[in-house]
Design brief:
By secondary structure, the protein is mainly alpha-helical. It has 3 domains: 139 residues, Ferritin, CATH 1.20.1260; 140 residues, no CATH class; 69 residues, no CATH class. Helix content is 80%, strand content 0%.
Amino acid sequence: MKKLQNLQTEVDASYLYSKLAAKEDNPVIADIFRQMSEIEMSHANAFLKKSVDAIATLPKPSFRAKSLNFIGKLFGYDYVLGVLMDTEKTLSNSILRSKKELNLPVTGSETNHVTILRGLLEQSKAGGSSIARFEHRHRSVGGNALRAAVLGGNDGLVSNFSLVMGVAGATSGQDGVLLAGLAGLLAGALSMALGEWISVKSSQELYENQIQLEKEELETNPENELKELELIYQSKGIEAGMARQMAADLMKNPEHAHETLVREELGINTDELKGSAMEAALYSFFLFAIGAILPVLPFMFTTGLQAIMISVLVSATGLFIIGSAITLFTGKSIWFSGMRQVLFGLIAAAITFGIGRLIGVSIG
């Protein structure tokens, strides 16, 4: 079963890399994606040859892979790239952990494909701008944005479902539930939005301060910054004399020297500072609200036990959809992830319902 899952993972990766290649405008990066697709397919064929199970042919791309491709068509393939890179990193870390547990030697072949992609970029002489563009896209989009959407909706659904069931338990599902549910939706969404705004804004201000300090250091102590550039190049495997010459050439253009120091020494991507804190806050607000509205909807049209049962059904459906969406990142079974999410959500709601019931009886 595990071997079949590994084989499917390789086939899916090859399929998705080929889709990325077909949609990529930059010919250098498109060629890299095609090479990655071929590498993954060669891995799949190797798995097939070594398999002692009754696997005669390679499987077709899975529903998960096709779903990711569909998401790419709708929202752009940067989403697919982010999920793929996260998957590659998780797989490589899993291999490394297994080897350490079994005391097997680490050969270096376990390195994740993000490193391979960067190496292919450099070997293809893509140039600094292409490398920076690729790295920026990998770090800032894709799986992270999609994951934020799923988790934001999950937070809203689980928290407001529990709140609604707690109040429903205390009031037997009467009119107060709707008011409490809407208040919980608004309070939670505003809290999430404010937290996101503060997080983005504070990060931007911190980075901007660090960038300004680096600029002042470059102006007041260029000799020290020259040495830092030299050491940066040496850390990349460049011979000392060549590193010294490259650093000296770069220092002739203070603006480029500053950009390099910010990127290499501070690890800051200046493109990420262009993001809007308000946009992130609104994004977070609506994601939370979408999940939080589901358990409240039935109480807008009915009350009592009927509203409670419909709310549970609608919320359970939403939880299953969210659990299924999580498999885009984990690769687990849709039914396993979906039902697990439903189970945990129902347990949380049942606890708050029981507490609300006890409080309601006590007050009565």
